[in-house]
Design brief:
By secondary structure, the protein is α+β, with helices and mostly antiparallel strands. It has helices at about 75-80, 95-110, 140-150, 250-265, 295-300, 315-335; strands at about 30-35, 40-50, 60-70, 85, 90-95, 120-125, 170, 170-175, 175-185, 190-200, 235-240, 275-280, 290, 335-340, 345.
Length: about 350
């Protein structure tokens, strides 16, 4: 599928990573399970592993920020309390959160040999009920295992895939998008990668690289069987990964900058919108291994380096730009899809991308 840069739009001035994807952060892996069956199943699940090993064995600092809370992200209270992430991150539709949560526990029990330890998975959602038979709850244990086991560190599929299969953006088809940026702090190059599940926005608010393109795009509005309904606000989940050594407090600052990327595209954090952002650092120096009983006695102190707050601005810029571009990539990668009751979301018309002279 095309990306914004294929269509002549590069957000900001910072360089991207080699893939321009969240997987440019070394060790991050992404997998999808996409469900398209019959006339009414348009859904799926997306899995993000924070590093090459087990997040349960070696936790990473993390933070969750809520811009508007009409949505769900499980495990948030524990992340708020401990400042660490202990599971993969899973994205799906609203009514499949429970099934995905249970399947993640099953997967971790089988793959990571959980015994008497408890684990609280992180599962976030947006609502695909316009195209998908949401109440049917079609995401299964096997789908979650497919996404988790199939995750890789290579290019990330975008648009109508995984958890984004049935989602819409600015009343066009939407879904999964990703982008990355690289910054130099001191003499070290760090990467920030973003993945979004985009399902929000009213057409007239849409901006691409600052241009209010949505105001003129009055054609190809969503096709709905039956009487028209009021505009929906929708939701977005933003996952921000970095290899810069940061504390959970600093990652909360990073996540808040992701909200500026949402705003640049025309998001307003509407009343009924669920705008959820999770940021984590997988720098080896800040990971936290589960201590053994002996380690609890002889090595109770943690000493972890982190980027100085006075030097963090490049990471803020990288986060904002990568979030904005990830949303744009989700928009232009998605293709027209018909679903439940014949409801249809149309692909964004690529010939309406603003051209730079």
């Amino acid at each position: 599928m095309p990306r914004l840069r294929d269509l002549g739009i590069a957000i900001g001035t910072l360089p991207t990573g080699p893939l321009n994807a969240i997987t440019d952060v070394a060790g991050v892996r992404v997998g999808h399970a996409t469900l398209i069956r019959g006339d009414a199943v348009r859904t799926g699940v997306t899995a993000i592993h924070p590093h090459a090993g087990s997040a349960f064995v070696e936790q990473v600092p993390a933070a969750v920020v809520v811009l508007n809370g009409a949505g769900e992200i499980t495990g948030r209270s524990q992340i708020d309390e401990y400042g660490t992430l202990e599971s993969p991150i899973l994205l799906t539709n609203t009514l499949s959160v429970g099934a995905v949560h249970r399947a993640c526990i099953d997967w971790m029990a089988e793959r990571e040999a959980l015994t008497d330890d408890f684990v609280i998975p992180v599962v976030a959602e947006t609502c695909d009920g316009f195209l998908n038979d949401l109440v049917g709850q079609h995401v299964t244990r096997e789908d979650v295992f497919t996404a988790l086991d199939g995750a890789s560190s290579g290019p990330v599929a975008e648009g109508n895939v995984g958890g984004g299969t049935g989602m819409g953006l600015f009343q066009f088809k939407g879904g999964i998008g990703t982008s990355s940026r690289q910054v130099v702090i001191g003499e070290v190059t760090y990467t920030v990668g973003v993945l979004v599940q985009g399902n929000y926005g009213r057409r007239r608010y849409l901006r691409i690289d600052g241009e209010p393109v949505g105001r003129a795009l009055t054609e190809q509005m969503p096709l709905r069987a039956g009487p028209p309904e009021p505009e929906r606000d929708g939701s977005i989940v933003v996952v921000i990964a970095t290899d810069a050594p940061l504390s959970d407090r600093q990652l909360a600052r990073i996540a808040r900058r992701g909200t500026l990327g949402i705003g640049r595209t025309g998001g307003i954090a509407a009343h009924a919108s669920g705008d959820l952002l999770l940021a984590f650092s997988n720098a080896p120096s800040v990971r936290v291994a589960r201590p053994t009983p002996i380690e609890r006695q002889i090595a109770p102190l943690l000493v972890t380096p982190r980027v100085h707050d006075a030097c963090i601005d490049p990471l803020f810029e990288a986060t904002i730009d990568a979030t904005e571009e990830a949303i744009g990539n989700a928009l232009v990668a998605a293709t027209t899809m018909a679903g439940r009751n014949g409801n249809t979301l149309f692909a964004f018309p690529h010939d309406r991308i603003p051209r730079r002279t």
